[in-house]
Amino acid sequence: MEKTISIYLFAYLAGSVNFAIIFFKLTGRGDPRLSFSGNAGTTNVYRQAGMVWAAVVFLLD
Questions:
Q1: Does any domain span residue 30?
Q2: Is the residue at 26 inside a domain?
Q3: ∠ CA(27), CA(31), CA(34), 5° rounding?
Q4: What global pTM score does this model have?
Q5: What is the pLDDT of residues 7-23, one digit of tens each?
């Protein structure tokens, strides 16, 4: 029972992390929410950083 609750808690917390924002902060590219559609997601990462980084963010999301 404890293992199941731990897995659910980990999945919830991992799903609440926005990897696009973390990526942009770590690479010093600014804030992805301030350009194009204003959405911090894979599409804005693709537009600003290219396909490789968009794929990384997509897989982490």
A1: yes
A2: yes
A3: 150
A4: 0.71
A5: 999 999 988 889 899 98
